[in-house]
């Protein structure tokens, strides 16, 4: 199986340099007629040509960070961190990360974000950057914006646009950034890695500039079907059980972010916008765009089905190895069965760090409070209200 990605010290574009370490979607979830069947879509092939990239890191990385954990031939991030890994950090999983990026970009009609971008943006943080593919593409599209990607594993390429860099950081700890640093904090596919989402959102709020944004993108890996084409004895049901039971055993959700909107509000974010998608798995949807998106979603699962399930199935749940190997075979067959019309839910949330708006509101309240005081004094003078009652009335008015 996979191994840590080897360094490839070659440029991939004239504009790029070696990294020095240190639109609304057209189809919402509410449309229950989202999918129609594509005739003859029983077996499809997905062609993907995603290349290898190099390993790099930030600052001086201690050797312990590069001492990856090994489990049944797969490597996972260093045990230096408190976060237990669920997916590997090797080349095979990196390929799936890149395929995932591709289908999400297709889903957004070529856009990288749903956040309304401002012309004066200076700095963007990509939390859990993985291979760094989102940070690299964003930096390439916005050469005047500094982009920083953070992760636990230094598996990012060494040749990148000059305005992007990668750093080692544990998102579950207090972030190293100062308050009000970033115009946008982008977080994608952290499900399974985060125990305290409320703490994560509070750190994002702290490090986001007033009137900056945070964007959270997560997938619920549970297979759903609106036409009951997933049989009770299907290996897809086993996949769902692995996700659900694994989350309980791991004491963190592997399926969705519990109370995500409420947690963002508790972190003091404002103008929270939620966009949900039903994303088909496979090429069974009639719509050409969705068919393509579904093919790539299936490709990312097929490419590293073991990487997505190995740790949960065998280490956490402790199910037998022979049973697991049979599951892998049957699951691949099910993924290729065009008669199964399964889909997953993808959620994009954007939220405003509203301290700038809040300050305007506070200032407005101050103006109104002073105006009410002046009006109160005028009325008291006109009505000849006794001083004791007047003081009490003014105090109540100022609350």
Automatic annotation (TrEMBL):
GO molecular function: methyltransferase activity
Coiled-coil stretches noted in the UniProt entry, renumbered to this chain: none
Any single Pfam family the record assigns to this protein: Methyltransf_23
Top-level taxon of origin: Eukaryota
TM region positions: none
Family: Belongs to the methyltransferase superfamily. LaeA methyltransferase family.
PANTHER family: ABC TRANSMEMBRANE TYPE-1 DOMAIN-CONTAINING PROTEIN-RELATED (PTHR43591:SF10), METHYLTRANSFERASE (PTHR43591)
Protein name: Mrna 3-end-processing protein yth1
Species per Swiss-Prot/TrEMBL record: Fusarium langsethiae
